[in-house]
Specification:
The complex is a heterodimer of chains A (119) and B (111). With 119 residues, chain A is an all-beta fold. In chain A, strands 2, 4, 5, 6, 9, 10 and 11 form a seven-stranded mixed beta sheet that branches. Chain A has a four-stranded antiparallel beta sheet with strand order 1-3-8-7, with no helix packed on it. Helix content of chain B is 0%, strand content 45%. In chain B, strand 3 and strand 4 form a beta hairpin. Chain B is globular. The chains are: A mainly beta (119), B mainly beta (111). At the A-B interface, strand 5 and strand 10 of A face strand 3, strand 7 and strand 8 of B.
């Protein structure tokens, strides 16, 4: 069965970076892409971008361009999201989802990773 | 501010039918980009409910249905059950943003 298992919660200082992982199983990793979505506590969903595990293509939301990097590692079937220059308003749950093509839909989701940014 | 507008809340009694609207513009829903719907139950990750305006993934009950007209999309939930309580989000592509966009979400309460 398709599973996406994300790394555990993180606490970071403002200005630091965080890298969240999303380990996939139950399907052929390199035939899909992965989208990343975040959700601040008590708020709605916010699309961050998409990354192809097939050819490495990326498509970032304008808001996050230059501050996030999405990558994949086919050897370990793992997708990664790195966010740099963290601010307090980056405190949120970060979700990965399997998404076949850019600008489509996430059909399976990870459990979420809480990133807390606090001094 | 989201450019996909959803009502903050809807409610209904068990067994009733409710509809959640998602209102966009000519740069997203009105441009005929697909609309997708997600269900997020309390404390859980989002789950795909409807894709491509009206298609249900395997395992989603046929009580859930999607439609689209003009610059709006609609999620209908028939035969409301207590376990349907949660938040519902629409999503579409927006050409002015050159990216995907979520609606603000609608909290469903089963009375």
């Amino acid at each position: 069965q398709v599973q996406l298992v994300q790394s555990g919660g993180e606490v970071k200082r403002p200005g630091a970076s965080v890298k969240v992982s999303c380990r996939a199983s139950g399907f052929t990793f390199t035939t899909y892409g992965f989208t990343w979505v975040r959700q601040a506590p008590g708020q709605g969903l916010e699309w961050m971008g998409w990354n192809s595990a097939y050819n490495g293509n990326t498509h970032y939301a304008k808001k996050f361009q230059g501050r996030v990097t999405m990558t994949t590692d086919a050897a370990t079937s793992t997708a990664y999201l790195e966010v740099r220059s963290l601010r307090s308003d980056d405190t949120a749950f970060y979700y990965c989802a399997r998404e076949k093509w850019a600008n489509s839909y996430g059909d399976y989701w990870g459990q979420g990773t809480l990133v807390t940014v606090s001094s | 501010q989201s450019v996909l507008t959803q009502p903050p809340s809807v409610s209904g009694a068990p067994g009733q039918r409710v509809t959640v609207a998602c209102t966009g513009s000519s740069s997203n829903i009105g441009a005929r980009y697909d609309v997708h719907w997600y269900q997020q139950l309390p404390g859980a990750a989002p789950k795909l409910l409807i894709y491509g305006d009206k298609y249900r993934p395997s395992g989603v009950p046929d009580r859930f249905s999607g439609s689209k007209s003009g610059t709006s999309a609609f999620l209908a939930i028939a035969g409301l059950q207590a376990e349907d309580e949660g938040d519902y989000y629409c999503q579409s592509y927006d050409s002015s943003l050159s990216g995907m966009l979520f609606g603000g979400g609608t909290k469903l309460t089963v009375l």
